[in-house]
Amino acid sequence: MRPARARIDLQALRHNYRLARRLGGDRALAVVKADAYGHGAVACAQALAADVDGFGVACIEEALQLREAGIAQPIVLLEGCFDADELTLVDRHGLWPVVATEAQLQALERHPPTRPLRVWLKLDSGMHRLGFDAAGFAEAWRRLHALPGVAGVVAMTHLARADELACAHTAEQIDAFDRVCSPLPVSETSIGNSAGLLAWPRARREWVRPGLMLYGASRFDGPCAEAEELHPVLTLESRIIAVRELGPGEPVGYGGTYVTDAPTRIGVVALGYADGYPQFAPTGTPVSIDGRPGRLVGRVSMDMLTVDLSDHPQAGPGSQVQLWGDRVRVAEVAARCGGSAYQLMTGLKRVAREYRD
Ligand SMILES: *Cc1c(COP(=O)(O)O)cnc(C)c1O
Q1: 298 and 166 within one domain
Q2: Ligand 1 geometric centre to CA of 31 (Å)
Q3: Do 126 and 266 lie in a common domain?
């Protein structure tokens, strides 16, 4: 069997969730959209079910997948409904929709819920993606409360730059949110995604919405002590399937982008960009070979990649190579490739997943 795998540590997932809730102080919505950032939404939701206050997903299809797997906890549709037909399913499955646009609000007014519905009303506090502006938010708040069946409204907003530790924009967004909420009888609020809740104490409200941090990664432009407590959840690994002993001046792989400058041992690893490893990871991107630091050399192929074994005389066919996980941080690999941990995680495909509880 092809040795490429993603090993997923569900204990680490639970540890990270508990960290989010401890920091947040109250309730934490575990964001499992995009198949739990590539970790498997059903498996992750089941692993968290006993602890969790609720789940966050991007769309109703993702919510129904969880309900069909027996997940009974609250589920928030983070972008709300895409059309009014979905409200029947929202009602039937007891989902909690975000209301972020006038169209979503009108749909709810035309199809009022038949059983108590909790709504998350979104303010655009400065990201300018989804959400009502300040005046529209107060008006939407009143219209929602006038609807029979609306049993509670959580006031929410989303931060655009919480990963930039010295950026004033985050405090401005939080100020804007508080200015809009303070005249309203708001009892539950939600601001922080992972970066917000890790690095910005003022973003820790009744509800926090951790996504990336659940999977053990973060992305900050400087040190963040809270993020050091995260445990990586997914280890992407494969094995060496062949070794080449090359003299100096020999090119390796497509394009001959890497040329040996001395006698070099090259290991061929059974994992490539069709598995979700970044195709343009440069020579020097860190890997771990049998538990010791190593480096990628040459261009990544679809099904294989090559590593430098010159400093790994003990390594050979069958040796374990970790591409990211507990020894190589996914965020570091992402940084080398000009991408993000979000992108690498959600881009995983083809590799077999192995869960450990
Ligand atoms: C995806 C998402 C989150 C989680 O974001 P992370 O940066 O992964 O923690 C939180 N809130 C909303 C509205 C989202 O769409």
Answers
A1: no
A2: 7
A3: no
| Residue 63 in domain | yes
What would the pLDDT profile of 54-66 be if each residue is shown by its tens digit? 999 999 999 999 9
* Of 17, 33, 122, 277, catalytic: 33
Looking at residue 145, which CATH number applies to its domain? 3.20.20.10
Closest residue CA from atom 6 of ligand 1? 211
Question: In the annotation, is 254 catalytic?
Answer: yes
Token pair, residue 114, equals 């038949």
Nearest to 322 by CA among 293, 283, 355: 293
Residue closest to 337 by CA, chosen among 322, 347, 327: 347
Q: Are 192 and 200 in contact (CB under 8 A)?
A: yes
Residues with beta carbon inside 6 Å of ligand 1? Answer: 31, 33, 78, 158, 193-195, 209-213
Which class for 213: exposed (0-12), middle (13-18), buried (19 or more C-beta within 10 A)? buried
What does pTM read for this prediction?
0.97
For 281-306, how does the pLDDT look when each residue is reduced to its tens digit (9 = 90+)? 999 999 999 999 999 999 999 999 99
